[in-house]
Amino acid sequence: MNRAVEPGFEPLDHAIGRSRGGLSTKVHQLVDGGRRPLVVAVTAGQAGDSPLLRWLLADLAVARPGRGRPRTRPDQLLGDKAYSSRANRALLRSKRVRAVIPQRDDEIGNRVRRGSSGGRPPSFDPVTYKRRNVVERSVNDHKQWRGIATRYDKLAYVYRGGIVVRAITIWLRE
User: Fold this and answer.
1) Rounded CA gap, 9 and 144, in Å?
2) How far does Cα 68 stand from its chain's mean position?
3) Predicted local confidence at residue 146, as pLDDT
4) pLDDT for 87-129, tens place per residue?
5) What is the DSSP string of 29-49?
6) Nearest 10 degrees: Cα torsion 83, 87, 90, 91
């Protein structure tokens, strides 16, 4: 992701975060149904998942077989409870992407507490959600490389380069 710095987004060269446990980095990715990474981003470890969804979707471009513009909109997006927010659901609705994201318990409680003015719960397909493990298995494929699993790199763009090289090897397996 080579985007200009916007509020709430840290550039790649400062993507090593500090926490009580020490230095950390978080890898965010969009994958297809075959565990192949489509978009990869690296942020500081304390950064949240939810705010980055907008940038991941903006960088999505899948070439079509033959001629034509690349596809920039998935049919559906499967995410865990970290991506459950009004902003993310509105973003996905505006792009006509079906969201398969469970609601957090506090969201359900707040909606129920408001009664009839709380609105309807968002649609959720538990059968489709069972396929979300594809993302976790893709992350595990990346961690088979020792350099990625142990995070010896001091610079975030070098670490991201290793993740991109691993993504290329995953695509070449097909």
Assistant:
1) 28
2) 26
3) 83
4) 999 999 999 999 999 999 998 888 888 888 888 888 889 899 9
5) EEE-TTS-EEEEEEEETTS-S
6) -80
Q: Where are the alpha helices (DSSP H) in the chain?
A: 53-58, 86-94, 105-114, 126-129, 133-142, 146-150, 156-173
Please give the structure tokens belonging to residue 170.
């995953």
Length of the chain: 174
Domain-by-domain residue ranges, the chain? 12-173
Return the bridge partners of 100, or none. Answer: 78
Amino acid at 162: G
